[in-house]
């Protein structure tokens, strides 16, 4: 199963895999494409992204990925599933979600899981998380609210 294979990636190798994967999609997608896909991901209903018949959870007021990223108390199971989804998109190089977008989503979701859910949702060390968020903030296609949110996340990482 893909999800199990993803959880077995050593933390020191994960950041390298995530960085390498983004380089492969940069030649396919343009800046406007990335921006449109990012907006679509933020608006995507959780039920579309987090399809897992084995798990159910109460999402409360959280109905989209954007809501999940903005929530002060997001449901931990939803964050965990969203992290698995983002990581799978990076590692599988899906055509419908560029790796660069998936990477930004991954780093932001790990931060949400770690700092808002207070849960060990990833073995990625804080230095790797901070480096990933710094990289994410530098994406030229990100909107200003997302860039501001990432800046706040960077300040909160020890």
Topology readout:
Elements: H1 2-7, H2 11-25, H3 31-43, H4 46-49, H5 65-70, H6 76-92, H7 99-116, H8 126-137, H9 144-156
Helix pairs in contact: 2-7, 6-7, 7-8, 8-9
Word description of this protein:
It contains nine helices and no strands. The chain is mainly alpha-helical and 158 residues long. It has one domain (2-156). Helix 2 (11-25) packs antiparallel against helix 7. The protein is globular, with a radius of gyration of 14 Å. Residues 1-7 have low confidence and may be disordered.
Quickly describe the structure.
The protein has 158 residues and is mostly helical. Helix content is 66%, strand content 0%. The chain starts with a helix and ends with a helix.
Mean pLDDT over the residues: 82
How many helices in DSSP terms?
A: 9
Describe the biggest sheet? Answer: none
- Tell me the number of strands: 0
Straight-line N-to-C gap: 34 Å
Give the helix level as a range of percent: 55-70%
| Count of the separate structural domains | 1
Question: What labels describe this entry?
Answer:
0% strand, single chain, disordered N terminus, 158 residues
């Amino acid at each position: 199963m893909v999800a199990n294979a993803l959880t077995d990636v050593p933390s020191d190798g994960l950041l390298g895999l995530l960085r390498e994967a983004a380089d492969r999609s940069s030649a396919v997608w343009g800046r406007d494409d990335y921006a449109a896909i990012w907006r679509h991901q933020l608006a995507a209903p959780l039920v579309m992204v987090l399809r897992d018949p084995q798990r159910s959870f109460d999402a409360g007021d959280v109905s989209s990925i954007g809501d999940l990223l903005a929530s002060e108390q997001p449901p931990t199971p939803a964050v965990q599933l969203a992290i698995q989804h983002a990581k799978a998109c990076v590692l599988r190089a899906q055509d419908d979600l560029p790796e660069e977008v998936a990477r930004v989503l991954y780093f932001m979701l790990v931060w949400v899981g770690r700092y808002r859910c207070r849960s060990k949702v990833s073995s990625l060390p804080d230095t790797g998380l901070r480096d990933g968020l710094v990289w994410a903030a530098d994406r030229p296609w990100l909107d200003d609210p997302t860039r501001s949110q990432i800046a706040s996340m960077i300040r909160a990482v020890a």
